Amino acid sequence: MKEYLITELQAREMFEEHSTYVYGIALMITKSPTLADDITQDTFLRTYAKYHLYDESKPIRPWLYRITVNMARNTLRKKTWMRLLSVVPDSKRELSAESIVMQNAMHLQLWSLVIRLSQKQREVVTLHYYAELALPERASILGIPLGTCKSRLHAALEKLRLFNELESELWELREGLK
């Protein structure tokens, strides 16, 4: 295989273009901003070191996200005792103060439901909704068949609906007790 070296400019551009998503994926998988920072840094270091293995005829995002998911999985294996909660980073768009408050509230509500999923379900939900990857890319990144990827997403969505219904019922009960 031909040996490719990544230039400093290419590395900087890759980081600027993909670091927010890499961080977001790592955060959603690990639930820890500190671990997500470490994973983001390690992902790009690994990407630069292994760039010669990258097939330039294919999009870089799936390859980069696969490295991210693998780094997050390895980190979780080492740090299974870490159970931290944080907010998913906001997008870079400028919004009104009211929109930002509403968006943060929705992120918190959704995030509080997503973190209850199993790691496998969190991974597929993160890659589908946060990274916005197509089914074949998600399956490839996770190293699973397409059918398994579909069924995990379906099961995760069913669980999220159930969690949401239960939270709504609890909210109504709390309001009724006041």
From TrEMBL:
Kindly name one Pfam family recorded for this protein: Sigma70_r2
Q: Where in the sequence is the signal peptide annotated?
A: none
Q: Which organism is it from?
A: Paenibacillus pini JCM 16418
| Family statement drawn from the similarity comment of this UniProt entry | Belongs to the sigma-70 factor family. ECF subfamily.
UniProt name for this protein: RNA polymerase sigma factor
Where's the RNA polymerase sigma factor 70 region 4 type domain? Answer: 108-160
Q: Where are the transmembrane segments?
A: none
Print the keywords alphabetically: DNA-binding, Sigma factor, Transcription, Transcription regulation
Q: Which NCBIfam families match?
A: sigma70-ECF
Task: Enumerate the spans annotated as RNA polymerase sigma-70 region domain.
Answer: 14-81
Q: Which InterPro entries match?
A: RNA_pol_sigma-70-like (IPR039425), RNA_pol_sigma-70_dom (IPR014284), RNA_pol_sigma70_ECF_CS (IPR000838), RNA_pol_sigma70_r2 (IPR007627), RNA_pol_sigma70_r4_t2 (IPR013249), RNA_pol_sigma_r2 (IPR013325), RNA_pol_sigma_r3/r4-like (IPR013324), WH-like_DNA-bd_sf (IPR036388)
Which GO terms of type biological process are on file? Answer: DNA-templated transcription initiation; response to stress
GO function term, MF aspect, one: sigma factor activity
> Mind giving the lineage of the organism this protein is from?
Bacteria, Bacillati, Bacillota, Bacilli, Bacillales
